[in-house]
Design goal:
With 137 residues, the chain is of the alpha+beta class. Helix content is 44%, strand content 21%. It is rod-shaped. The protein starts with 9 loop residues before the first helix and ends with a strand.
């Protein structure tokens, strides 16, 4: 019986093509699971997968999922920290330079809102991204 190469078949080829060029860092948990299922489906029944390899692959999947959850938690924490920083500037005088301009402007922060996941300050009627603030007094 001939062993089918799981990487060249169906779902595995799609998973490989979707991550080709960007390396293993773009391999999602779903892609990894597709590869594992394809490998199990196409394995040689006379020479099944070694149990230690299965355990290793399962633990790798668990690590990928844990890292993904940790990245999401860190992103949420970063957003919260940026929002807190923006709120602390309410009623304070700030200087800022808007992207694409060379002039520094200043004014008092009247409100803070989240725009596309980024804290934005309302200064003199203009929306100013937190990243544009150059000084606070």
């Amino acid at each position: 019986m001939t062993m089918v190469n799981p990487v060249s078949s169906g779902a595995a080829a799609q998973a490989q093509n979707s991550s080709a060029g960007s390396g293993l860092t773009s391999l999602s948990a779903g892609d990894f699971l597709k590869l594992l299922v394809t490998q199990l489906t196409n394995q040689d029944p006379t020479n099944p997968l070694d149990p230690t390899q299965m355990i290793s692959q399962t633990s790798t999947l668990t690590m990928v999922e844990d890292i993904t959850q940790m990245n999401q938690a860190l992103s949420a924490m970063e957003s919260g920290q940026q929002l807190s920083q923006a709120v602390s500037m309410l009623s304070k005088q700030v200087s800022y330079q808007l992207p694409g301009t060379s002039a520094t402007q200043s004014g008092t922060v009247s409100s803070v809102q989240m725009v596309s996941g980024t804290p934005t300050l309302m200064v003199n009627g203009s929306q100013v991204p937190l990243s544009a603030i150059t000084s606070v007094s």
